[in-house]
TrEMBL record:
Belongs to the Gfa family. Signal peptide: none annotated. The keyword 4Fe-4S does not apply. PROSITE patterns: CENP_V_GFA. Keywords: Lyase, Metal-binding, Zinc. This is Aldehyde-activating protein. It comes from Aliidiomarina iranensis. Residues 4-119 form the CENP-V/GFA domain. Pfam families: GFA. Coiled coil: none annotated. The keyword Oxidoreductase does not apply.
Length: 133
């Protein structure tokens, strides 16, 4: 059985996931763009993995956008995205909150009809290993 550990930015929330991820989606919908402040969300999904909060479960707040299935759980202290449990029994894990390496590549880009226009042709953009001087 695979085991993954994760935490929020401030370290208050810590969790363990036991099981396998069935999907890894890069979601370009407008809801994910708004709640990440970026071009897309990167979430892993599992309908069989078990989520165990190791610390800070009382610091986890969940927002569900009315009239949608869009849900986001986050640390109420630092705002970092953390796993959320959806009504269908599926656990969604933001890939960036994992402290354990994952050996899975994204399954697919989804909701690409909403893709940000500035998220195209990025191969030619200058890169830096750290903060540019």
């Amino acid at each position: 059985m695979s085991e993954y550990f994760g935490s929020c930015l401030c370290g208050n929330v810590k969790f363990k996931m036991q099981g396998m991820f069935e999907g890894f989606y890069l979601c370009h919908c407008r809801h994910c763009q708004k709640d990440t402040g970026s071009a897309h969300a990167a979430n892993l999904f599992s309908s069989s993995a078990k989520l165990n909060w190791l610390a800070g479960s009382d610091s986890v707040t969940t927002f569900t956008l009315p009239g949608t299935r869009h849900k986001k759980s986050f640390c109420k202290f630092c705002g970092s995205a953390v796993p959320s449990i959806h009504e269908v029994g599926q656990v969604a894990v933001p890939a960036g909150c994992l402290d354990t390496e994952i050996d899975m590549s994204p399954t697919a880009h989804i909701f690409t009809s909403s893709k940000a226009n500035w998220d195209n042709g990025l191969d030619g953009v200058q890169t830096f290993e750290g903060l540019p001087e």
